Amino acid sequence: IFLPHLAASLEVEETYIMIKPDGVQRGLVGEIISRFEKKGFKLTGLKLFECPKELAEEHYKDLQSKSFFPNLISYITSGPVVCMAWEGVGVVESARKLIGATNPLNAMPGTIRGDLAVQTGRNVVHGSDSPENGIREIALWFKEGELCKWAPTIDPWLNEIN
Ligand code: GDP
Ligand code: MG
């Protein structure tokens, strides 16, 4: 959005990334944030947050019929999470690749889950699965005024000028 020099055909997306309570408890916050920073995406929102049950249920409403849903809600509300909004061209799919498969045993080495987790029910991080859900989830987890629409000075070194 703040990349005026970017080729017009490239769509800037937003994704909601969340370090789950196990990631916070295990001291993986810096490691996980670092992977998105180093990739070159732009951080636009960041907070440590204790998630109310209702918000967890709304976030995961598509999974409410699953047998693991109650466990999922108690997992996500079991301690503070780190809520993040990241922006960039292709950020939604790229973040999913950086995160790796839902089951950490199937996640490739080099991915966050592949390197740092072993169980689906303790897979340390969430990432939106579509640009539409990126927008929906950021609106769900952040209030107005909590997001920073800034222009990193390194932009021209990450994004080719038209
Ligand atoms: P994601 O998009 O890769 O996070 O996966 P999903 O959207 O399918 O599921 C959301 C979250 O629910 C996962 O990240 C897991 O924390 C949890 N989950 C999904 N499937 C299972 C399961 O079979 N068992 C348990 N315990 N948790 C699951
Ligand atoms: Mg999902």
Question: What can you see in these coordinates?
Answer:
This protein has 162 residues and is α+β, with helices and mostly antiparallel strands. Helix content is 37%, strand content 17%. A four-stranded antiparallel β-sheet has the order 2-3-1-4. The chain is globular, with a radius of gyration of 16 Å. Bound molecules: guanosine-5'-diphosphate and magnesium ion. Residues 63, 68, 71-72, 102, 120-121, 123, 126, 129 line the site of guanosine-5'-diphosphate (GDP).
Largest sheet: 4 strands, antiparallel
Elements, N to C (H/E)? EHHEHHEHHEHH
Helical residue percent band: 25-40%
* Assembly category: single chain
Q: Are any ligands bound, and if so which?
A: guanosine-5'-diphosphate, magnesium ion
Strand order, sheet with most strands: 2-3-1-4
Keywords: ATP-binding, Kinase, Nucleotide-binding, Transferase
Organism: Salvia divinorum
Cofactor: Mg(2+)
Binding site for ATP: 20, 68, 96, 102, 113, 123
Itemize the secondary structure elements and their pairings.
Layout: E1 12-19, H1 21-25, H2 29-39, E2 42-49, H3 53-59, H4 69-76, E3 81-89, H5 91-99, H6 112-116, E4 125-127, H7 131-141, H8 155-158
Antiparallel strand pairs: 1-3, 1-4, 2-3
The structure holds guanosine-5'-diphosphate and magnesium ion.
Residues 63, 68, 71-72, 102, 120-121, 123, 126, 129 line the site of guanosine-5'-diphosphate.
Short description:
Residues 12-149 form the Nucleoside diphosphate kinase-like domain. The protein has 162 residues and is an alpha+beta fold.
